[in-house]
Every structure is written in structure tokens, then in C-alpha cells.
Amino acid sequence: MNLLEFLLIFDLFRFSRKEGRKAPLLLTWKGKK
Prior knowledge:
single chain; mainly alpha; 82% helix; 0% strand; flat
């Protein structure tokens, strides 16, 4: 795992705590890459 992935996952975690339901959309977006 590189630093960029770590930051992305950390940001997702923070965002999911804040926004609740929107995090899965970001996860599916990451899956498309």
C-alpha cells in the first residue's frame, strides 16, 4: 500500500464519519479505477 492509497482511505474514513451514506459511492468510484 502506498502513501496515496493510505491518504485516500483515511479521507474516505473521515468522510464516511461525517456524511454517513456517501462513502460507498466513493468506494465504488475507487473500484472503477
